[in-house]
Every structure is written in structure tokens, then in C-alpha cells.
Design goal:
Elements (H helix, E strand, L loop, with lengths): L4 H21 L3 H26 L3 H31 L13
């Protein structure tokens, strides 16, 4: 059984939208990072769907690059959140004024 092309893009759009809601709605840096990760996964699903539709490998290769960038983003982002939490004692982005001179 083959899943229709439109259904895969609908799934990718829903996942991307859930990440966008998570990014906008939460005032927490960790949930912001999770929202960005979910958005990147939705985009990766769309690339794989397009690659399967047109029988090209470029979409799948681009998905691997998205996963590599997502892993790097999580490691750097969590390191920054931990560092900022140690300085301010909060993960609320409104409390971060450590970059002001």
C-alpha cells in the first residue's frame, strides 16, 4: 500500500505547525529548542516525501544534512541554556540581560 503524496505533506505541515506553536506559545528556552527541532523534522519529512515522489536522492541527502544541523543545534543550544541558567538562575528568556553592556 502506497501512502498518497498529499497525505505525507499534510503530516509534514502538521508537524511543522506543532513546532511553530511550541516555539511561539512557550516562554521557556528548552521548549523553544524543542519547537525548533520539531519544525526541522517536519521539513525533513517534506524533503523525503518529495524525493520519493520524483524518484530523486537529493531530498533524502538534504534530510541527512537537516538531521546533522539539528544535532549540532541541540548541542550548542543546550550548552547556551545551561550557561545562561547558571548565570541568571532562570530559563525564562525575559530574565536574560547578560548580553547588555
Amino acid at each position: 500500500m502506497i501512502v498518497p503524496f498529499g497525505h505525507i505533506f499534510l503530516l509534514a505541515g502538521l508537524i511543522f505547525s506543532m513546532g511553530l506553536v511550541c516555539l511561539v506559545a512557550h516562554r521557556n528556552l528548552i521548549m523553544t529548542l524543542v519547537g525548533v527541532e520539531v519544525m526541522m523534522n517536519g521539513a525533513a519529512i517534506a524533503f523525503v516525501a518529495a524525493a520519493l515522489r520524483w524518484q530523486l536522492m537529493e531530498g533524502q541527502v538534504f534530510m541527512l544534512f537537516i538531521l546533522a544541523v539539528a544535532a549540532a543545534e541541540v548541542s550548542v543550544g543546550l550548552a547556551l541554556v545551561v550557561s545562561a541558567y547558571q548565570r541568571t538562575g532562570s530559563i525564562d528568556p525575559d530574565h536574560y540581560d547578560i548580553l547588555k553592556w
